[in-house]
Amino acid sequence: MQPCSREMQGMSSLLNASSSQISLEDLQQQQSQSSSSIQGSQIHQIHASHYEPPPSHDDFLEQMLSTLGPPSWADLGGQPGKVPWDTTTTVPDGNGPNNKPRDDETPDNVPAFPFDESANLASKFRNHQISGGCGSKSAAAAAAAMMLQHQLMLARGGGAAGAGETGLVPMPLSLSNGEFDRSQNDVVDGSSSDVTLRFKHCTMDSALDLWPALVRRRTSFTILRHAIDFGGSMAAQQNYGASGPAMNQTQAPSGSSGAQPAQPRPRVRARRGQATDPHSIAERLRRERIAERMKALQELVPNANKTDKASMLDEIIDYVKFLQLQVKVLSMSRLGGAAAVAPLVADMSPEGNGGDCIQANSNGGTHGRTSNGNTNNNQTASSNDTMTVTEHQVAKLMEEDMGSAMQYLQGKGLCLMPISLATAISTATCHTRNPMINNNHHHPPIGSNGEGPSSPSMSVLTVQSATTGNGAAAADGSVKDAASVSQPW
Amino acid sequence: MTNSPKGFTLNNADSCRVKFARRFLRSLIEIKTRQTNYNNNLSSSPSSSSEIRRRSERIKLKAYSSMAHAVGPRKAWTRALLLKLHNRAKRHRFRTRKRSSLAMVLKKKRVFRVKNHANFYKPAAERGNYSVLNSDEKTEKLRELVPGGKAMDICSLLEETAHFIKCLAMQVQVMHEIADQLSN
Fold this sequence. Notes:
- The structure holds two protein chains of two kinds.
- Chain A is an all-alpha fold.
- Chain A has helices at residues 2-28, 36-51, 57-68, 71-75, 114-131, 137-156, 158-168, 170-182, 189-210, 217-228, 234-238, 244-257, 278-300, 309-333, 341-348, 353-370, 376-400, 402-412, 419-433, 443-446, 456-470, and strands at 414-415, 478-479.
- In chain A, helix 2 runs antiparallel to helix 3 (57-68), helix 7 packs parallel to helix 10 and helix 19 (419-433) crosses helix 21 (456-470).
- The C terminus of chain A is likely disordered.
- Chain B has one domain.
- In chain B, 70% of the residues lie in helices and 0% in strands.
- Classes of the chains: A mainly alpha, B mainly alpha.
- Chains A and B meet through helix 13, helix 14, helix 15, helix 16 and helix 21 of A and helix 2, helix 6 and helix 7 of B.
- Chain B: Keywords: Nucleus, Transcription, Transcription regulation.
- Chain B: It comes from Morus notabilis.
- Chain B: It is found in: Nucleus.
């Protein structure tokens, strides 16, 4: 008896308190939605219970339960979405706020949109209660009471409601949680009464505090889910009781994290603006892994200042090809003997672009490693031959179009540069290379590096060694003999 | 040559270099001796271009194999490289010993490429934007370059590529220094 009456009092007071606000909203917005029929039915049942003198606790509950079923909505005398609020004086159309279109963003609709989800969830919650064996009428009463709280709070003002009820719901749930779980016939009346009392207490005070909080549709959805899911962590929800501005931030992420099926799974609190369903998590992890690998590659490959993935891949491919080329060249140079060089060079000249590149490199490489004084002329001659072929090609291309000539050179790994720069580089690298060599066997045959024409191979060699030995970015490929090809700029 | 204290405190990279250098030198010596034996037996000119080409090819292969052995089979690309070299050597041996062609075919068939079925045959759109890299033409080129790259997804391919580049750079450097030393 007592719990029942208290419940009724609570509900009636709720109705009275919230009805004025509801009416305002109703006047503002009037549309109809079918989904709100659930809402309507529930409100109707409140309404009905309000007006019918409850003979007994059990009877009241039976009545409520009976009116919960969907078929009963038709009996409510309304078109779907219409609720016979007309009988009441204060609330002409109970579905006013409920009939808002589901629109998250506009503040006008803030009070309305949570209704749909809340209704569905509440019904689910109810079904869970009923089907889960909590068939005790006291349990159902508490459930119904909580549903009422949801709806009415939401009706009052979405933002406040969303925030307020979250502060509310965990509390009663925490109370009744154990009881619901443990047994079905436990007396939950006490808890339900506490619920109503607390609800009464909280709505008035906290509503204004939480009014400015912007509640997203998903947030309220989340909140209700948390409320309904007994396995969820109540502690997390206590955070919702924070002040308005804080609510904004906490609600958004919690909303996103709440978009999971209501299972007792450990919830991952996602960062703001990121979804947490397993597929996107996996996708995100994958993307991060790939990104960090690309970064590691960027450090390894020289000239890796490209931010574009495609060009970065190009660079990587080129670098790998270049390294493999160097291995090939070095393996050839091991053969030793000057005589071996000429056929090598002649052999490689008909090869493609990569071969031409080798040409220049191998000349330098072989000169550097295998040259003696005697064979220097021979080598220079052969290298000059191959160089002249390239030079002719480049000259021909330059007549047509400078760009294509540049590209041709680039394809060979060569570049144009002023003579002064070339000589400067060759002298510099020759000097830096000295410490690396134990004896100075090389130097006499090659002679001074001041003169460009006499040491085309030397310039090639020095740049190459500089590149490989010091890792200096003196040239990506080798430096073409400035005298033969380039024009003084 | 960088004088790393052999036998004392060798970090990973140094030990790799030392191992590689040792194996490579050993294989160079072996090639040299084989060459001289061959020359003694057949007295053919060692400086014919084809002969030179073959020798350089052999040296290159030896370089790669010693590199792969030095790193060890803990990386996918080394395993793939070792497998390839192993099969190649076997094929050579078969050719010289004139085994039956059937056996050769069978041996060749063993080198089949395992595609990562989970990822390869899904449409690109399904895999998200980074997964377009799986079938990109550039990725294909990279797969060809890196040994064993055809059977990896983009994630492991990038990882293998990084390690491969590191090892290649180290190989080039060591060979460079060896060449300098030898030619002095």
